[in-house]
Structure formats: structure tokens, C-alpha cells
Q: What sequence folds into this?
């Protein structure tokens, strides 16, 4: 007698206990600025509350597997554990998936512009031959077909008016500077604004290095001063007891971009506060946290104008809704002829991605 036998359903796509905990662990590492010991403490607390593990696989088992697979190692200073370069890359990749999850793949990894001419990617469109066109761009099949249509096969002859040129698209290289505000306001009022900003920075770094390897990305952190940050150090960024020296950040960004040879240069600035600090010539700081100080504001507007004259657009992502701050950003954007977005933390990555993709262009001087 034929019948059916039943057994427990096994989902082939189900994640293993390690993979489930790894997702949570990677998120905690971003929040703790790469502090493995603090992330593990949080993981244990979450396990107590939500019972994520059981006797068959514990947090200690997870830690052993992390070490065995090369995600963490013993800290060289003897202070517990530290993440490895493998984990740094995984965090960037994870940020890319989270922030740019809707990204479509493209061949070659170049940036298409709306300019046609001597480029490096052939497109279907053709146009009539013009004096001075390169002969290697002549579409032979289409040109021969034109000759046959115009004069027939029996009296075949190929003439200049039969020739058509295969169009190509320019793929523009772009140099980008991403400025991240590390002032104390990024964690004020119980709202974590620095973690989403770091995720965007890591995602943008992974996007450029994997899809646009010929592009350049420089990352600047700014507080009382401004300094360059390497891609591998992004997970470790922390907010400090800083004011917001937007001027120092812009000056460093412009210095970096002036040295770039390609014509496509741009600045992205993620901030949530008004400029409130300047560094004096003697090394002391001029600070004013109350309102918009004209001395500081005018310096910012002057730098915005300098960037405009150098054909360097600035796109500001303002994580704030205060009307007077929005007015400052409007004035700043007008001085630069750039762009500004007043965005929530959840939508920050979408805005950066959309603008990064659309800001490809080739300046003709």
C-alpha cells in the first residue's frame, strides 16, 4: 500500500545560529565604534532578554567561532579582543547592503554622463559621418547597408554619405570628499545620529571601491578641527566633546580636491548642527554655541563661493529641522549653487546614493 511519510520541514535558506548572531554582532560593532568587548556585553544582555541562544549553542560558542573564522583576535594591548580587517570589510559590505540595497548592477563600473562623443562604451545609436570623426568608430555593417539601400547590390559603392558613426558614452571619473560631523550634538538629546552617518560613509566607501574603482574618495571628520580618516578606520569613529568647525572641514576638503586632476569633483557634508567654531591664527579657538555667529557664518559662505568658482559642488545633508539652521543651509547652498537635503536619519543613505549616482557629469572648460 502506497502512502506518504512526513518529516520536519528544513528550510535550506534558514540561517545558522552563528549567522543570526553575526548580523546582530555587526550592528552592535557599528554602534560601539568597533569595541568588541562592549559589543559582546550588549550581546549577552540581549541574549538574557530575548533568549537568542540555548544550551546547544551559547554566546561563548559564538565567540569561539568568531575567533576560529578570523572575525576577531586578541587585542595586541591585552585589553580583550579586537576586530580584524576581515570584519572591517564585512561591516562596510553590510552597510552597503543596508543603505544601497536597491542598487542595480552595471557593467564596467563607470559613471555614465549625458554627453556623447569619444568615450569608452559603445551604445546602439549611430549618426552620420562628419569630417574629423575617427575611422575606427565607423559602423561598417550599418554603412554597407546604407550603400546597398542607396545604390543597390549590382552597382555597389560605398560613399561618404553612406557612412555612419557608432556613438559612445563618456564615463566620467569623480573625486569625492565626504565630510562627517563629529561634534557632540551628534549624540545629544538621546538620539544617535553618528551611527547612521558612519553607515553611509562605509557604504559609500564600499560602493566606490567595488563599483567605481577608478574614482577617489577622501573622508574628513570635523569637530573643533578637521582631519582625514582612512576607510578602514570608519567603524571606529566616535563623537567627541567638540564644537562644529565647518570652516576647517571645508578648507581641508578644498585642499584635497584642488590636487585632483579630473574635472568632476564634489563634496558631501553630513551634519546636524550649525557652525560654531573657528581656529585662530595663534592656535586658539573662537567658539560660539549661541545662535549663528556672523563671523563664523561669513567664513563658511566665503568658502562655499570659493568652491563654486572652482566648479566643486557641495551637497549638504542636514540632520536637523530647526528653521534658523535651514535658513543658514539655504544661504550656504545658494552661495555654492549646490544642493541641500533636510533628511531624517532613516532616509539619509537613499539621498546620498541618489545624488552620488546623478552627480556624474563632465565639465567642459
A:
Amino acid at each position: 500500500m502506497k502512502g506518504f511519510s512526513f518529516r520536519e520541514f528544513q528550510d535550506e535558506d534558514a540561517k545558522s545560529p552563528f549567522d543570526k548572531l553575526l548580523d546582530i554582532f555587526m550592528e552592535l560593532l557599528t554602534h560601539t565604534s568597533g569595541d568588541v568587548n562592549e559589543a559582546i556585553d550588549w550581546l549577552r544582555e540581549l541574549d538574557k532578554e530575548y533568549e537568542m541562544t540555548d544550551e546547544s549553542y551559547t554566546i561563548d560558542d559564538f565567540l569561539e567561532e568568531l575567533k576560529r573564522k578570523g572575525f576577531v583576535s586578541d587585542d595586541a594591548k591585552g585589553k580583550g579582543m579586537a576586530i580584524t580587517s576581515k570584519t572591517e570589510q564585512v561591516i562596510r559590505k553590510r552597510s552597503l547592503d543596508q543603505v544601497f540595497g536597491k542598487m542595480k548592477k552595471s557593467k564596467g563600473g563607470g559613471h555614465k554622463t549625458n554627453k556623447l562623443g569619444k568615450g569608452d562604451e559603445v551604445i546602439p545609436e549611430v549618426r552620420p559621418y562628419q569630417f574629423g570623426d575617427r575611422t575606427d568608430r565607423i559602423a561598417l555593417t550599418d554603412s554597407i547597408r546604407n550603400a546597398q539601400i542607396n545604390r543597390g547590390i549590382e552597382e555597389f559603392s560605398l560613399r561618404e554619405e553612406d557612412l555612419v558613426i557608432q556613438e559612445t558614452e563618456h564615463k566620467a571619473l569623480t573625486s569625492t570628499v565626504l565630510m562627517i560631523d563629529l561634534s557632540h550634538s551628534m549624540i545629544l538629546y538621546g538620539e544617535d545620529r553618528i551611527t547612521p552617518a558612519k553607515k553611509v560613509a562605509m557604504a559609500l566607501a564600499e560602493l566606490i571601491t567595488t563599483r567605481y574603482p577608478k574614482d577617489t574618495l577622501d573622508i574628513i571628520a570635523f569637530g573643533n578641527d578637521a582631519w582625514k580618516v582612512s576607510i578602514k578606520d570608519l567603524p571606529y569613529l566616535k563623537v567627541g566633546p567638540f564644537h562644529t568647525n565647518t570652516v576647517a572641514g571645508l578648507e581641508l576638503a578644498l585642499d584635497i580636491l584642488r590636487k585632483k586632476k579630473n574635472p568632476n569633483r564634489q563634496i558631501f557634508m553630513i551634519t546636524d548642527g550649525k557652525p560654531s567654531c573657528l581656529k585662530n591664527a595663534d592656535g586658539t579657538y573662537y567658539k560660539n554655541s549661541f545662535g549663528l555667529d556672523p563671523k563664523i557664518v561669513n567664513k563658511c559662505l566665503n568658502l562655499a563661493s570659493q568652491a563654486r568658482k572652482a566648479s566643486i559642488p557641495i551637497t549638504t545633508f542636514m540632520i536637523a529641522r530647526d528653521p534658523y539652521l535651514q535658513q543658514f543651509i539655504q544661504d550656504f547652498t545658494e552661495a555654492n549653487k549646490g544642493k541641500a537635503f533636510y533628511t531624517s536619519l532613516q532616509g539619509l543613505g537613499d539621498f546620498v546614493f541618489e545624488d552620488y549616482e546623478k552627480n556624474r557629469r563632465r565639465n567642459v572648460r
